[in-house]
Amino acid sequence: MAETLLEIDELTKRFGGVVASDAISLAIPTGELHAIIGPNGAGKTTLIAQLAGEIAPNAGRIRFAGGDITGLPIFRRSQLGLARSFQVTSLFLDFTAIENVALAVQAHAGHSFHFWRPASEEPELREPARAALARVGLAARADMLVASLSHGEHRQLEIAMTLATKPRMLLLDEPMAGLGPEESARMVNMLRELKRELTILLIEHDMEAVFALADRITVLVYGRIIASGAPEAIRNHPQVRQAYLGEQEGAHG
After folding, report:
1. Are 191 and 160 within 8 A, CB to CB?
2. Topology of domain 1-81+168-177+191-253, per CATH?
3. Ranges of each domain in the chain
4. Section 247-252 average pLDDT
5. Distance between CA atoms of 137 and 160, rounded to whole angstroms?
């Protein structure tokens, strides 16, 4: 059995009178793609923000790779290999794809390369950047300006920038949002390849994608876990169907 990579113990977060995370406990082993689903307002993004270090919990602990990371800032979690996609909230639209990824490599490495030369010209930056683009299927777009890429390609590029930090685990918050059918299919195929080598926590509204990719699924409703298990068990869980799947099956919501 694979060792536990991420362990969440009684994680609690309140905003005033609203309990966004209600004593959440979850263990994710190395190599698993674990999906978190639930209706809007269930607390999914609040949970992932606590794991990434963007907001602090009121109570509970987060352990990653055997160490307590509850109080660590975002950059320290990233250095340990826990990376959130879309924590880089904006792409440089007037830069090429490879320049964007090279900057992510540079930021993670903390190197001060020759500042008068474009980052993408440094071999130490360019080679890992090109490799990251290839992993997300954007090798042929490396030298294109980001402004000319599609919305789906922007999403792929954001994940490439995360991969450039050499993560052990990816936190993905709705990577399918706003994608058309073809782009969604491409994203599913890309994530299927990435799950061969990375542990992934996926928040996603696209149920078709979730059931195609997930090894296990956890269902959040009002900040509380109501079920967690294999995809078929979740699909047939009466409480889950009543709370969520019955309304959402086949829909993006």
Report:
1. no
2. Rossmann fold (3.40.50)
3. 1-81+168-177+191-253, 90-166
4. 48
5. 9
